[in-house]
Design brief:
- The chain is an alpha/beta fold and 424 residues long.
- It folds into two domains: 102 residues, no CATH class; 281 residues, Vaccinia Virus protein VP39 (Rossmann fold).
- It is globular and about 70 Å long.
C-alpha cells in the first residue's frame, strides 16, 4: 500500500454520513471487505461481544440499543466490522474506521480504554497462538538505505502544507514539554521550544560547538542551535523537509551556520562536539539499531555528548511487535518500530556508549497529540482542499488519536537520554 492523495471530490466533502466508498486504487484494502471465513468471523464476534461488557465503554452494534457506560463505540456495520477484525486483527480494526464502519463520540477516550485493556480482549490461551495469525512486516520496509528513503518519503513527503495545518509555527513534529495540563496558558510553540532547549542543554550546545543533527524535521532545532552560536550539520531523507528547512534557515539569516544534507545517517562524515537526534530511532527499525548507535558513536568527538529523544514501549510488548505488520506500519510509519528503554540502553552500550541520564514525560506527548488532533480535525476542509480524500482524513485522525491513547494509557512513553562515550 502506498499512501496516495486522491483529489477530494465535491460529493466527498458534502456528504456527512459515515459510509463513503474508499477509492479502490488508493485504498484497495479499505475499499473491499475481506473474504473472511464465516467461522473466523463468528469467533471474532463472540470474543469481542464477550469482552465489551467488561470494559468501561458504551457500545452500540448496528440497530441494537447501546449498552455500558464510557466512551462510545458505534458500529454502523457489525458484519463488516467483525469480518475485518477476524481477517486482520488491529489492521482490520483500523481499516474498518477508515471505511466508516464505526465511529466514536470520544475517539481518544475509546482507544485509551482499549490500549489499557488490550490483553483482556483475547483469552490467554488464544494469545499464545498470536504468531500463527499475525502478519509479518514486508521486507520492502526494512531500514536498508533504499528502504529507509522510501519509508521516509511515504510519510514526511506527503505535503509540507498538510503538516503546517496541524503543527505549531515552529513546524516541530515531536513531543513538546509543557508547564501544566491542559495547555491553556502557553502556546504549543513555546512548549516545543522548551523541549528543544532542554535537548540542546543536555548536549552542551553553545557558541562554536560543532553539532550533528540526525533527522532534520523542518529545521527548528538546527535554527535554535545555530542561534546559540553553534555550527550545525543536519541530515534528512525527506526532500520536502530539506527544501522548507533550507528556506527557513535562510530567512533567519543563519545559512552560514547550518548545512542541511539529504543524506542517510550511515553516511555522516566527521566528528562533532554534540549529536542530537529527536524521535529518529523509531524509524530505523530493530535490525539497524546496532548500525544507528555505532553511527552516533563514530560521529562523536572526544568529550562529546549525545542527546536523544525517543518514544518507548515496554520491552515484552516491543518483542511481540518487532516482526508484526501493524496498522501503523501499514499506513502511517512503514518500517518503524518503537524501542524499549532496555533496547536503547543495551544497543547504546554495545556501541560503546554509556547512558548518563534518562528522563520520561509521556503525559506531555499525550497533550501534544491532543493539540495536533484538534487542529487537524478543525481544519478538515483545508486538508480536503490540499487533495486528501476522506479516507485519508479518517486515517490521520485515527493515527493521532491512537497515538494519544497510547501515552494516556501508559502503553507508550517518551524519553530524553544523554549518552557519552564509555570507557574502552
Amino acid at each position: 500500500m502506498t499512501l496516495s492523495t486522491p483529489r477530494a471530490t465535491r460529493e466527498d466533502q458534502a456528504v456527512p454520513g459515515p459510509r463513503i466508498p474508499a477509492d479502490p486504487e488508493a485504498w484497495p484494502d479499505v475499499a473491499r471487505s475481506p473474504d473472511t471465513p464465516a467461522a473466523h468471523t463468528a469467533v471474532a464476534r463472540h470474543l469481542l461481544r464477550r469482552a465489551f461488557p467488561r470494559l468501561p465503554l458504551r457500545v452500540r452494534l448496528g440497530d441494537q440499543a447501546p449498552a455500558g457506560h464510557g466512551p462510545g463505540l458505534t458500529v454502523h456495520d457489525p458484519d463488516a466490522f467483525f469480518r475485518r477484525i477476524a481477517a486482520d486483527g488491529l489492521i482490520g480494526f483500523g481499516e474498518s474506521y477508515m471505511a466508516g464502519e464505526w465511529d466514536s463520540d470520544d475517539l481518544p477516550g475509546l482507544l485509551t480504554v482499549l490500549a489499557a485493556h488490550v490483553d483482556e480482549l483475547v483469552p490467554a490461551p488464544l494469545r499464545r497462538l498470536r504468531a500463527a495469525w499475525v502478519r509479518r512486516r514486508p521486507d520492502a520496509q526494512l531500514g536498508t538505505p533504499e528502504g529507509a528513503r522510501e519509508n521516509v518519503h511515504r510519510h514526511y513527503d506527503l505535503s509540507n502544507e498538510l503538516f503546517a495545518l496541524f503543527l505549531d509555527p515552529s513546524m516541530t513534529y515531536s513531543s513538546a514539554v509543557f508547564t501544566a495540563f491542559p495547555a491553556r496558558h502557553e502556546s504549543l510553540e513555546t512548549a516545543q521550544h522548551r523541549k528543544i532547549d532542554r535537548l540542546l542543554d543536555l548536549a552542551g550546545v553553545g557558541p562554536d560547538r560543532r553539532v550533528l543533527e540526525i533527522g532534520t524535521g523542518w529545521g527548528e532545532l538546527a535554527l535554535r542551535a545555530a542561534a546559540r552560536g553553534a555550527e550545525v550539520v543536519t541530515l534528512t531523507l525527506s526532500a520536502e523537509q530539506r527544501d522548507l528547512a533550507e528556506r527557513r534557515i535562510a530567512e533567519a539569516g543563519l545559512a552560514d551556520r547550518v548545512t542541511v544534507r539529504l543524506q542517510d545517517y550511515r553516511e555522516a562524515e566527521g566528528t562533532y562536539d554534540a549529536v542530537v537526534s529527536v524521535e529518529m530511532v523509531e524509524a530505523v527499525g530493530a535490525d539497524y539499531w546496532p548500525v544507528y548507535f555505532r553511527s552516533l558513536r563514530d560521529a562523536l568527538a572526544p568529550g562529546g555528548r549525545i542527546a536523544l529523544q525517543a518514544i518507548t514501549m515496554p520491552h515484552t510488548r516491543m518483542l511481540l511487535t518487532a516482526r508484526t505488520h501493524t496498522w501503523i506500519s501499514k499506513y502511517v510509519f512503514p518500517g518503524g518500530l518503537i524501542p524499549s528503554r532496555r533496547a536503547l540502553t543495551e544497543h547504546a552500550a554495545r556501541a560503546g556508549l554509556d547512558t548518563v541520564s534518562d528522563e520520561g514525560y509521556g503525559e506531555h506527548y499525550a497533550e501534544t497529540l491532543r493539540l495536533w488532533r484538534e487542529r487537524f480535525t478543525s481544519r478538515a476542509d483545508q486538508v480536503a482542499a490540499l487533495g486528501f480524500d476522506r479516507t485519508f482524513r479518517r486515517m490521520w485522525e485515527l493515527y493521532l488519536a491512537y497515538s494519544e491513547a497510547g501515552f494516556r494509557a501508559h502503553y507508550l512513553d517518551v524519553r530524553q537520554l544523554l549518552l557519552i562515550e564509555g570507557a574502552r
